[in-house]
Amino acid sequence: MSADPRAADGEAILVTLSALVMAGPDAPVAAPDAADALERLASLNRTVVLAGDAVAGRRLPEDRDARERWVRAAIGRDVPIEVAPFSAPVWDLHDAAGEAHAQDAWQGVRSAHGAVWLITDGRDDVRPARRAGLRIVFVGPRPAGGPLAAQADIAARDLADAVRLLLAQELFGQVPAA
Predict the structure, then answer these.
(1) How far, in Å, CA of 1 to CA of 51, rounded?
(2) Which residue from 2, 3, 14, 46 has the fewest beta carbons nearer than 10 Å?
(3) Looking at the DSSP assignment, which residues form a beta bridge with residue 119?
């Protein structure tokens, strides 16, 4: 994990790697606004990118340092982030034990990093992460109504919108109207 001088200060913002990269022709590539978004988040608070075993159809290196180098190379610019290994558990809506396991995993990563917010594009992350005490910024299309709509604190069109809305929430205490 990277050393960040602010590591002991404030509350971290978790960002799933899948919200930052997309499938490219040969390998995953950073979303066009990924580095700028991470820099803006870092101006608000300590930012931790959660890098699982795979992203956009590519297996990531198993070695922790190699995985961090891969993430940083994919982002394409040196940004003040930490990279932490974390693969969100797969769970089923009808499996209470699986959901409890996923919630425990999210609670562990929340506690380990002193996190308050999670920025994710993973629909299956929302419910257990929220129940683990994280506030959620969901990136991407979401259905009007239903369980996901009731669970995310903020819905964003894309990564840049997610950062803008989160900054407004943190600085002004409210999300601007659409």
Answers:
(1) 11
(2) 3
(3) 15, 137
Q: What's the Cα-to-Cα distance from 51 to each of 20, 102, 136, 145, rounded to whole Å?
A: 10, 16, 17, 30
Contacts of 158 (CB under 8 A, 6+ apart): 31, 33, 139, 140
- Tokens standing for residue 37: 């978004």
Distance between CA atoms of 67 and 84, rounded to whole angstroms? 9
**Calpha distance 126→153 (Å, rounded):** 10
pLDDT in tens, 132-167: 999 999 998 865 655 554 578 898 999 999 999 998
pTM assigned to the model:
0.88
| pLDDT confidence tier of residue 3, bands split at 50, 70 and 90 | very low
C-alpha neighbours within 13 Å on the C-beta side of residue 9: 9
* CA 96 distance to own-chain centroid: 24
Residues near 103 by beta carbon (within 8 Å), at least 6 away in sequence:
128, 131, 132
Q: 172: which 2 tokens? A: 């002004």
Q: What's the rounded Cα separation, in Å, for the pair 46 and 155?
A: 21
CA distance 9 to 17: 23
The pLDDT, as a whole number, for residue 95 is: 85
